Amino acid sequence: MKYTAIVDQDVQNIIADCGQELLLEKLQNKTFLITGASGMVGSYFAYTLQKLNRLTGANVRIIAVVRNPAKLDSYIQSDPAVTVVKADITQPLSITGPVDYLVHAASPASPKIMSRQPVETNFANTLGTANTLRLAQEKQAAGYLFISSREIYGQPMEGQELFTEDGPLGQVDPLVPRNGYAEGKKAAENMCSGFAAEYGLNAKIVRLAHTYGPGMAIDDGRVQADFLNNVIHGENIVLKSDGSSVRTYTYIADAISAMFLVLLRSTGLVYNIADEASKTSIKELAETLVGLEPEKGLQLVFEIPKTVNAGTAAFTHGILSTEKIRTELGWQPRYAIEEGFRRTLLHLKEECGIDPA
Questions:
Q1: Residues of the chain with pLDDT > 90: what percent?
Q2: Which of 199, 201, 209, 291 has its CA 20 to 30 A from that of 99?
Q3: Which one, of 112, 85, 65, lies nearest residue 120 by Cα?
Q4: pTM
């Protein structure tokens, strides 16, 4: 990922939406550890803290935990406030000095990896969460945040449209290898609840639904990534289904502001994060992305295979209710789906050196 003009605008908006005073009150002179710091979520946390330091002199120290430092943006690595730690989070973590806040964002997000490496996917969420929770407990951290997923809800019951934090849950088959992602996230949530109850750890869980934006990999197999890849390269968008599955799409900057609010202000354990106003079918999403650059004359093409792709998400329906986070924390997303994807496209062009015009 690369720090672009779009990302810079985003992190300034995150600080404004969270409240600079809140961030300073909670984070000034603190140490903030991020696992998966080279990924989209982890990078945005680091970028936001770096911008807070530059704007306010907050003196937040950032520990960026990554498996492969080469994937970490040089903008993050070159900052003297950042310490880069190369580590496999499925192994116990050894960190020198204090850790005041810990965000566990290290987890495979690609359906291709979930399908091909279900064991490693599960371990990142189970063993990785156990190791980071132990570290947070050892350091007596003020806050711990686990990045969970809409997938823990599974497929909704008949007639069920919304998933709320207090249930009911849908169906997840634990014997499907691809579901190692969902089952690993569920086990990790239980660990967070256990550490909170048994040890008094201030653990928080956020369940994200289809988060996109700068930093997303456009070759990871998710439909939004495939569609953006098509648009950038001037290719028709090919749908492998009838496109009727309905999802919500949340722009990364909106999701990050929500996560900061949950970590620093919330009193509950778990919160859904989604933009219900951006509820759309896959077909409608494809039409939106084609419309971003009408001059290219791109079209939708349907090529529906006879067999189901085992790498795709098993859960096609069910929208996350965000009443809890909106009511308790006053969170409101900034970006509608068209503007969010427009910003993502501009970022990708700058990152690839393509003329945005």
A1: 66
A2: 209
A3: 112
A4: 0.92
